[in-house]
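USER:
I would value a second opinion on how I read folds in token form. Give me a protein, with the fold worked out from its sequence. Write it directly below this note and I will take it from there.

ASSISTANT:
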Amino acid sequence: MPARSQWTEEEARDWYERQPWPVGCNYIPSNAINQLEMWQAETFDEATNDRELGWAAGLGFNTVRVYLHDLLWEDPQGFLDRIDRFLDIASRHGIHTLFVLLDGIWDPHPRAGPQRAPRPRVHNSRWLQSPGVEIFADPLRHDELRHYVTGVVGHFRDDERILGWDIFNEPDNPNHAYATDEPANKRALALALIRKAYNWAREAGPSQPITSGVWRPEWVSTGARSELDEFQLRASDIISFHAYTGPARLQERVDDLVALGRPLFLTEYLARPYGSTFEAVLPILRERKVAAYCWGLVSGKTQTIYPWDSWAKTYDSEPDPWFHDILRPDGTPYRDEEAAFLRDMTVGA
């Protein structure tokens, strides 16, 4: 398969002009604790995916951002088959998928097989890094990931059900919940690995765009960019970013990124206590045609209705407001007015 170069700004804009406004969520089924439980053969649940993606479509969502994991490549054919079945389900609901290949946050010691139960009322208590620290912290082992990246991207390189490829989520996150397990030089390791991962993805020749989101709180607050930020912005076909912030600061970052001349994808937002709400930010994103992916859909085993500080603070009951997520496990909205607002914003978008 022929490798390809980075899209030009014009190619990226032409592609984006053919898309409806991408609006959706980061999706994991409510009965999965992490990426492995979502995708492993023993726990892959087509019925739950079908039901919950139907609810997403009912809110007007036309895209989801979904995490994969390198350990799933131990069974390449089974994994690719399950991805194909998921894409069929999403496509039946009019939903395109943005896949995330690698992830730099939460548990740095992933293990295949049955996953541990959630820690009660703790945000993302069993989410997994990909790769685990054993590979991530050893640059001599980074190339072990090449077959995973090229295998997945290459297999689906011309699949119209896939909107794009998010190469590495928050690759240099200091991951304070697991700080004692993180390498001291995480940012340098992340930069070395992401450079290779971009090359591998392009080697697979995808027809879909490639990206990786800038995310650091310092960047969100001030616009200051690290070397890794600069690489992500410079190397991507489309520009993606995270911003758990209110409308004024979001507008500042959008204005900064527009100058790069490429389509913008906000791939993580929605932190209600921080002013990052649908009502506050979606009108800005729709007006500017910035793709919008909130964190979460159905409250479930990831427990992301609880805030990040649940790692240090004990919660005895459901928080008010919820941090992330939109629907309760039975599909009813956390806030009826919020769901109605979403449908109003997405109709005809």
Observations:
- The chain has twelve helices and eight strands.
